[in-house]
Write a structure and sequence with these properties.
With 383 residues, the chain is mostly beta strands. It has a single domain, classed as Neuraminidase (6 Propeller), CATH 2.120.10. The protein is built from six helices and 26 strands. It has a six-stranded mixed sheet. Strands 3-26-25-24 form a four-stranded antiparallel sheet. The protein has a four-stranded antiparallel sheet with strand order 4-5-6-7, with no helix packed on it. The protein starts with a helix and ends with a strand. 33% of the residues are buried.
């Protein structure tokens, strides 16, 4: 029976490598054909190969609201709190080292953290503040270094570093200016001018959704997932290449739906949930696996692709059934990183398949995690 189920899961995702990139004709890319209706109701936790937990330090003066981004650099972790707009620098044991909380309108201050990265060369922390249209640089000790202001109508929503001087900026279809109707702009901070513009669009978006992570580094390559795109790109110094793409057939959002001017976010979300489209498509990648997560009707779907074995699996949870969903927001080496609340870690360790991999004292420790505790980081690999 297990073998039959495995075959059915594989049928739901077909891999075709050999289609050519439209942007670079001499490169071949893989197309993952995802047959959403063939997803099976299997618990994604059964696909976890290994896991470990890291409990972050908690105190009266150290209360993290919601982790929106995690970066790893040598022996440090940089964590963004979307609620307080603070940045926390922890060591790898979960002990707080420094905190950046420069909220304001002056030099070295930010109103909102839209994105954050670690400078590849200088090893500084760089904050993107879309409201003030600037990038602010801090040392790992939290000291203000300098800032850069964008001379454009709209600030980018996300950014990534290509090399020492080149940055990629994701504008997410917000501009009505014909000169800036591009999803992606590559600019030099040294000269303050744009070098290349990619992926033009016709109509700007009002209410919309975006992948949680649109730009991330995998080894030395900057990977880009545009808004409303089933194509994933590599960003290089002088061009972008298609890395791979997904074919959801008629389940992918249409151009006509994209162009509708929604009055508010509630109407937009209701329309998506009642549509026949895949939505809230999020993707992360390690050396060995691609992990996708998306919604379809009343289902929360999981896509796991083992790149080395060339095996793909697709399954789902019913929205009404899940309290615990695996939603990684970062990668560390070959591990996906998932922030968990106290109740989620208790749900997880009470699963029979998980209990068998833990010692009794570990189970007891995790079951006793306080509701007031900071989020716990779960590091996982997939089969």
């Amino acid at each position: 029976m297990k073998n039959i189920v495995g075959i059915l899961i594989l049928i739901a995702v077909l891999i075709s490598c050999g289609s050519r990139s439209k942007l670079n004709e001499d490169k071949k890319t893989c197309v993952f054909k995802v047959e959403v209706e063939k997803a099976l109701p299997i618990d994604v936790k059964s696909e976890i190969d290994s896991f470990r937990f890291l409990i972050l330090e908690t105190s009266d003066s150290l209360q993290i609201g919601r982790i929106s981004k995690i970066l790893f650099h040598d022996d440090k972790m940089i964590i963004t709190d979307a609620i307080t707009n603070n940045l926390y620098i922890f060591n790898r044991n979960g002990k707080l080292l420094n905190k950046i909380s420069n909220i304001g309108n002056g030099p070295g201050e930010y109103v909102r953290i839209d994105d954050v990265l670690i400078d590849n060369v200088l090893k500084y922390i760089v904050v993107l503040d879309g409201i003030q249209k600037k990038m602010i640089t801090y040392s790992m000790a939290g000291k203000y270094i300098n800032e850069f202001t964008f001379q454009t109508e709209h600030a980018p929503m996300h950014f990534g570093q290509i090399n020492e001087n080149l940055y990629a900026f994701d504008y997410q279809r917000h501009s009505n200016d014909s000169l800036w109707k591009y999803n992606l702009v590559v600019s030099s901070l040294e000269t303050g001018s744009e070098k290349q513009k990619y992926l033009p669009y016709e109509v700007s978006l009002g209410v919309s959704f975006s992948p949680q992570t649109t730009l991330f580094k995998l080894e030395d390559t900057l990977v880009y997932i545009p808004q409303y795109s089933s194509i994933v790109y590599n960003i290089l110094n002088d061009r972008i290449d298609v890395r791979y793409s997904f074919d959801f057939e008629d389940k992918w959002i249409t151009d006509d739906f994209e162009k509708i001017k929604w009055n508010n976010a509630v109407d937009f979300m209701n329309a998506l949930e009642s549509s026949n489209f895949v939505y809230y498509f999020n993707l992360l990648e390690t050396k060995s696996h691609i992990y996708g997560r998306f919604n379809y009707k009343d289902k929360l779907c999981y896509l796991i692709i083992n790149k080395q074995a060339q095996i793909s699996k697709l399954f789902y949870d019913k929205k009404s059934d899940y309290r615990f969903s695996i939603s990684p927001i970062a990668v560390d080496g070959n591990e996906f990183v998932v922030p968990l609340e106290a109740y989620q870690i208790r749900d997880f360790v009470e699963e029979e398949t998980v209990k068998n991999k833990l010692k009794n004292n570990e189970i007891s420790d995790y079951l006793q995690v306080s509701e007031d505790s900071n989020p716990i980081l779960m590091f996982i690999t997939f089969k």
